[in-house]
């Protein structure tokens, strides 16, 4: 019985947030709720004409490495990475997202060094990062370059509601 009393004391001291934790998981109930909010953002549906969501290409939750809430969409297109990047450079600022960082994106861009655009915008007062990347490009060509053919595009939104520390750019 003393162990049960001590456990109740620890939970009461830790607060209700401890009840939202899953053992071995740093993602809180608030994080999971925020991930659902990110998943509902209409910006994740902005895509070039003809782009289609790949099977299993929609997800949300907390990242394994950081436990930060995220949501993502992975689309297949018939466009090159350059054309996709041009599309998002126009479409996302029109939707209220500010370009924070842009890697050079061209057919000979090495994937290892990055090939993505990063945008920011507050969501419920929390600085949120939207990364536009090209996940299907790795191992798609010699020396892991983007290449000039059709590319897939990944929209990945991430935030840190607790302390705003995340910098996904």
Account of the protein in words:
22% of the residues lie in helices and 28% in strands. The chain has helices spanning 2-14, 29-39, 81-94, and strands at 52-62, 69-76, 98-102, 117-123, 126-133, 152-159. The chain is α+β, with helices and mostly antiparallel strands. The chain has a six-stranded antiparallel β-sheet with strand order 1-2-6-5-4-3. It is globular. The chain has three helices and six strands, in the order H-H-E-E-H-E-E-E-E. The model is unreliable at 1-24 (pLDDT under 50).
Strand-helix topology:
Blueprint: H1 2-14, H2 29-39, E1 52-62, E2 69-76, H3 81-94, E3 98-102, E4 117-123, E5 126-133, E6 152-159
Antiparallel strand pairs: 1-2, 2-6, 3-4, 4-5, 5-6
Short description:
By secondary structure, this protein is α+β, with helices and mostly antiparallel strands.
Observed structural traits:
169 residues, alpha+beta, 22% helix, disordered N terminus
Count of beta strands: 6
Work out the radius of gyration. 19 Å
Question: Helix/strand-derived class?
Answer: alpha+beta
Poorly predicted residue ranges: 1-24
Individual helix count: 3
